[in-house]
Design goal:
The complex is a heterodimer of chains A (415) and B (74). Chain A has 415 residues and is mainly alpha-helical. Chain A has two domains: 372 residues, no CATH class; 27 residues, no CATH class. Helix content of chain A is 73%, strand content 0%. In chain A, α1 packs parallel to α4 and α6 packs parallel to α11. Chain A starts with a helix and ends in a 21-residue tail after the last helix. Chain B has 74 residues and is mainly alpha-helical. Chain B has a domain of 50 residues. Chain B is elongated. The chains are: A mainly alpha (415), B mainly alpha (74). Chain A: One of its GO terms (molecular function) is phosphate transmembrane transporter activity. Chain A: Keywords: Membrane, Phosphate transport, Transmembrane, Transmembrane helix, Transport. Chain A: Belongs to the inorganic phosphate transporter (PiT) (TC 2.A.20) family.
Chain lengths: 415, 74
C-alpha cells in the first residue's frame, strides 16, 4: 500500500513538472509572435497549447532516451528508486518556478536532469551517475544547441533581409505576420514532440520501479495522454514573465527576425526529437533569437539580459541537483512513505511562497508587450515619483509648511 | 557510454537539416513576399506558388522527421 501511494505521488508530481515545463517554455514558441504583435497574447498561448498537445503524440524517441543512460539505477529497490525520482522532480520544479519568478528562460530539461543527478548522487554516491551519458546527452548538446540555433537563425535572417530589403516596413509587417504565425505553430508542435516526452520517460521509470511495467514495454496510452494534457494546460496558463524577457528583453525583434528565429528553432528541435537527442528547447529558442538579432546592424542585442540568462543556464544543473540532493537527504530522516510526504509538502510550500512573491509585480497578458526600456522622460518622471514617495515618508509633502514672510527690518510678519 | 562518433553525426545532422529547413523555408517565404509586393505581371501567382511551396516544405519536413523511420525504414 505505501508503495502504491508513493507511485501515485510521483506521477502527480511528474505531471506538475510537465505543467511547469509548459508554462515556462510557452515563451520559446510564442515570445517573438507576441512581441511583434503578429498574435495577441491570449490567442498565442491557446494556439501553442493546442499544438503542444498534438506534438506530444507524434514521437516518443526522447522519452526512451530520458529513461536510460543518465543515472545507473540498477540494483536500487523500487521504493528507493521512486523516492530518487520524486526528489529529482522536486529539484526541477523548484528551479523552474524560481527562474520563472525572475523571468529567466532557463532549461526545464536541464533542471530535470540536474534534479535526478543530484538525488542519485545523494542516494548512491558519484558512481550512481553515468558521466559518459551525462556528457553525451546533456553537457555537449547544451554547448552546441544555442550555437547551432544562433547560426541557422543568423543565416535565415540575413537571407530574408537581403531578399526583402526593398519592401517597406508596413508591407513587410503585414506579409511576414502569417509566416511568423506558421513558424510559431511549427515551433509549438516541435516543443510538444520534445518536452512532453521527458516527463513520459520519468513516469515510465517510476512505473518500472513500482513493478507495474516491464522495462521493455511500450509507453502506456494513459501516460501519453496525461503528459500531453499537462504540458498543454501549462502552456495555456502562459509564463508571461519569460515571454516578456525572450520577446522584449534580449532584442527588439521584427517580424522578419521572429519568423526566421522560429523556423530555425522548430527545424532544430524536430530533427533532434527524431534523433532522440534531448536538446533544451529554451537553449535553442534563445540562441535563435540572439542569432536573428545579430544578423541586423540596426538592432541592439541587450547583452546584459543575455548574460543573466547564460548564468542561469550554467547554474541550472547544479542548482536543481542541489535541491534534489537536499530533498533526498531530508527524506532519509523518515521512512520512504513519510519521506515522500515531507518532500511533497516542501515542494508545495516553496511553490506557494514563490507564487505569492510573483503577485507583488504581476506580469500578464495585459502588460507582456510593454516596452523593455522606458523612454527617458517617462523614466525620469517615475524616479521623481519614487523620490517624492520616499520623501513623504520622512516629511509629508502633501501638506508643505507655510513659509513665513519677512517684514521690514527682517522681522517675521505674523500670518 | 560516451560515443563521439554518434554525437558528431547527430550534431552534423541537426546543423544540416537546420540550415536546409530553418534557413531555407524563410528564404522561400521571403522570395514569395517579394514577388507579391512586386508589380510585374504574374508576380502575384509566383508569390502564391512560393508560399504554397513553403507550407508544403514545412509539412514534408514534419512528415520526414516524425514518420521517417516508418517511411524509409529505421
Amino acid at each position: 500500500m505505501p508503495e502504491l501511494v508513493i507511485v501515485v505521488i510521483v506521477v502527480v508530481v511528474a505531471l506538475a513538472f510537465d505543467f511547469t515545463n509548459g508554462f515556462h517554455d510557452t515563451a520559446n514558441a510564442m515570445a517573438p509572435s507576441v512581441a511583434t504583435g503578429a498574435l495577441k497574447p491570449k490567442p498565442a498561448v491557446a494556439l501553442s497549447a493546442s499544438l503542444n498537445l498534438v506534438g506530444a503524440f507524434l514521437s516518443i524517441e526522447v522519452a526512451r532516451t530520458v529513461g536510460s543512460g543518465i543515472v545507473d539505477l540498477a540494483g536500487v529497490d523500487g521504493e528507493q528508486l521512486m523516492l530518487i525520482v520524486l526528489c529529482g522532480l522536486t529539484g526541477a520544479i523548484v528551479w523552474n518556478v524560481l527562474t520563472w519568478l525572475f523571468g529567466l528562460p532557463s532549461s526545464s530539461s536541464h533542471a530535470l536532469f540536474g534534479g535526478l543527478i543530484g538525488a542519485t548522487m545523494a542516494a548512491l554516491g558519484v558512481s550512481g551517475v553515468l558521466w559518459g551519458g551525462v556528457s553525451q546527452k546533456i553537457l555537449i548538446p547544451a554547448l552546441f544547441a544555442p550555437v547551432i540555433a544562433g547560426l541557422v537563425a543568423f543565416v535565415g535572417t540575413w537571407l530574408v533581409h537581403r531578399v526583402t530589403r526593398g519592401i517597406g516596413e508596413r508591407a513587410a509587417r503585414r506579409s511576414f505576420r502569417w509566416g511568423q504565425i506558421g513558424a510559431a505553430s511549427l515551433m509549438s508542435l516541435a516543443h510538444g514532440t520534445n518536452d512532453a516526452q521527458k516527463t513520459m520517460g520519468v513516469i515510465f521509470l517510476a512505473l518500472v520501479a513500482h513493478g507495474s511495467l516491464d522495462p521493455d514495454a511500450d509507453m502506456p496510452l494513459w501516460v501519453r495522454i496525461s503528459c500531453a494534457l499537462a504540458i498543454a494546460l501549462g502552456t495555456y496558463t502562459g509564463g508571461w514573465r519569460v515571454i516578456r524577457t525572450l520577446g522584449k528583453g534580449i532584442v527588439d525583434i521584427s517580424p522578419r527576425q521572429g519568423m526566421s528565429a522560429d523556423f530555425s528553432s522548430a527545424s532544430i528541435i524536430l530533427t533532434s526529437s527524431h534523433l532522440g537527442l534531448p536538446l533544451s528547447t529554451t537553449h535553442v529558442a534563445s540562441g535563435s533569437v540572439i542569432g536573428s538579432g545579430l544578423a541586423r546592424d540596426d538592432v541592439k542585442v541587450r547583452w546584459s539580459v543575455a548574460r543573466r540568462m547564460l548564468i542561469a543556464w550554467i547554474i541550472t544543473l547544479p542548482a536543481a541537483g542541489a535541491v534534489g540532493a537536499a530533498c533526498l537527504l531530508i527524506s532519509g530522516l523518515f521512512s520512504h512513505f513519510w519521506g515522500a510526504v515531507v518532500v511533497t509538502t516542501i515542494l508545495l510550500v516553496a511553490c506557494t511562497i514563490m507564487w505569492l512573491r510573483s503577485r507583488l509585480s504581476p506580469i500578464g497578458h495585459h502588460n507582456v508587450t510593454d516596452e523593455w526600456e522606458q523612454p527617458k522622460a517617462e523614466r525620469k518622471r517615475e524616479i521623481d515619483r519614487e523620490l517624492s514617495a520616499v520623501a513623504s515618508g520622512v516629511a509629508s509633502v502633501s501638506r508643505p509648511r507655510k513659509r513665513k514672510k519677512l517684514g521690514r527690518g527682517g522681522r517675521k510678519r505674523e500670518q | 557510454m560516451f560515443d563521439l562518433g554518434v554525437l558528431v553525426t547527430a550534431v552534423a545532422s541537426v546543423l544540416g537539416v537546420g540550415l536546409l529547413l530553418g534557413a531555407g523555408i524563410p528564404l522561400v517565404y521571403a522570395l514569395g513576399v517579394r514577388a507579391r509586393e512586386s508589380e510585374r505581371p504574374g508576380s502575384t501567382a509566383v508569390g502564391a506558388l512560393l508560399m504554397t511551396a513553403c507550407v508544403l516544405l514545412a509539412l514534408a519536413g514534419i512528415a520526414v522527421i516524425v514518420f521517417g523511420d516508418a517511411i524509409f525504414g529505421a
